[in-house]
Design brief:
single chain; 2 strands; mainly alpha; 5 helices; globular; two-stranded antiparallel ribbon; Phage portal protein
Amino acid sequence: MAKFVEFNGEIIGIPDKSFKIIDSSKNVKKTAKHYQTLISKFSTGDDDDDIAELVGNQPMMTEEIANKIADIADLTAKEKANLADQSYSDQYAIFNDFLTKFLGIKLPSLDDDDETESEAETDPKLPEED
């Protein structure tokens, strides 16, 4: 069954346009190629300082993710230019949707939420401990 990545164009500064991008061979190949180039550009081979590497690569990541969305969604030059003024987190999430739905992989989360909390710690139905 076909898979789609759908998003409202308003998220990326294109009002009155919605996107529904199918997992066609062309789009899967584009997504895979873009993921490989992103990983190769991001990796410096120095695992000693992951935070510095991540922060140091953010200017490149913001531009690369916008370029990849523009390519996969076939945006015009004007539509692509709008991406620079839109939420990077939203763009990151859209590109992550392409990766998840088309390739079964995902980028690390941008959220600072601790996802390692157990259900017992977050379940509101459980009684509070004194």
